[in-house]
Amino acid sequence: MRRRVLQVKNAVLHHLAVPGLTLLIGIGSALAQSGDLRAQDQSTKPPAANSSPSADAAKETQRKTDEFVEASQAINGPAGNPECVWLGRRVVVLMWRDDLDTAFRHLDLYDRFGCPGGHVQATFRCLVRFFSAIDPKMPDSLSGRVHACWINPAAQPQAAAAATPAPATSGAAAPAPAAAAPPAAAAAPTAK
User: Is the pLDDT of residue 147 over 80?
Assistant: First the structure.
């Protein structure tokens, strides 16, 4: 009799263990998919608070569209095409952030669209000139400077532009030569 009671207990436990385990796994999966409960509570705020991000997104989209229109009007040739502007500016930003592998992959795509590689080089040169004007704590500082340099790669920082006038030749001329080597180095005695 005792043996039958133990067998019945074991049978009942086995039959309850499988559905119980399934239930625990199901609850765990549901909790994992639902995410953070605090994040869900924040998403149930009144719609007036949620309308602000959509307005900001609309303004951001309009600003980007205006930048592409400005670039196409200011730059003659393929460098003013929207795909060249978008890819070229990304290449310059990636180069600035020392992500050269990704920058070169984007540059390959930039070249595939028939965009001029020299414009990327001139824009990066302009960006390097404005090194002190870029604030790493302000995210729009870099993107704004890249856009300004994309529109006008020959731009000069105001402090440097006031100190030295720009040469009248095209941008391909070499800068003024540095001071000559000191004569003491040339007159060093040779040992035999």
Answer: yes
pLDDT (0 to 100) of residue 95: 93
Burial 155-171 (b: 16+ CB within 10 A, else e): bbeeeeeeeeeeeeeee
The answer to whether 175 and 122 have CB atoms below 8 angstroms apart is no
Question: With the CA atoms of 158, 79, 96 and 57 taken in that order, what torsion angle do they form, in degrees rounded to the nearest 10?
Answer: 90
* pLDDT, mean of residues 6-33: 76
pTM: 0.53
- Evaluate whether 91 touches 103 at the Cβ level (below 8 Å): yes
Q: What is the pLDDT of residue 36?
A: 61
| CA 182 to chain CA centroid, nearest Å | 45
CA–CA dist 31, 25 (Å, integer): 10
Question: Rounded to an integer, what distance in angstroms lies between the CA atom of residue 150 and that of residue 67?
Answer: 10
